[in-house]
Amino acid sequence: MITIQSVEYHQKSTLRNLIELYKYDFTEYYPEDVNENGLYEYKYFDHYWTETGRHPYFIRVEGILAGFALVREIETTDNSTIYSIAEFFVMKKYRHQGIGQYVAAELFNKFNGVWKVAQIETNKPAQKFWRKTIERYTNNNFQEIREDGWDGPIQTFSTIT
After folding, report:
1. Cβ atoms of residues 100 and 133 within 8 Å
2. Which residues contact 139 (CB under 8 A, 6 or more apart)?
3. Sheet holding 81-90, edge to edge
4. Which of 18, 56, 124, 138 has the fewest CB within 10 Å, making it most exposed?
């Protein structure tokens, strides 16, 4: 059974550990060095408990931690909200089993509205995953755009029915 679970404040250190694994994996596409403590830093980490509109989730398979998802609400100039997958990580052991697609669909269902899901240009596996996942979820009713200030594709779609 696949579940998503809100990350509570007392579970911050567990999420921080998973983010280290994620950031390490991500260096394949975006080279980043560790700090003097041997750790990667995620500068928005604490914001998930200090700002509204940020939602951290654990991904569990049969009750075991298998990854995480960070969802962010972005306010627009016309006071509407756009939902974004800020970070998404499924550990290698659990990849290619439909877990990521299941979790993405659950998150899209949970936050009803307009979504933007962005990937960096060099991360071709993420682009393939998100295009396939969003195509299936929306029955191919999405757009892929480019925006100034972001180097890579962005899929945009609505879950409003």
Report:
1. yes
2. none
3. 2-6, 54-61, 64-75, 81-90, 114-118, 154-158, 143-145
4. 124
Element (H, E) at 38: none
Q: What is the pLDDT of residues 104-140, one digit of tens each?
A: 999 999 999 999 999 999 999 999 999 999 999 999 9
Q: Which long-range contacts (CB under 8 A, 24 or more apart) does 49-53 make?
A: 49/9, 49/12, 53/81
For residue 87, the model assigns a pLDDT of 98
Nearest to 28 by CA among 105, 94, 123: 123
Task: Give per-residue burial for 97-111: e unless 16+ CB within 10 Å, then b.
Answer: eebbbbbbeebbeee
DSSP state of 58: E
Alpha carbon distance 140, 150 (integer Å): 23
Single-letter code of the amino acid located at 120: I
- Which SS3 state, helix, strand or coil, does residue 44 take? coil
Across the range 144-149, mean pLDDT stands at 96
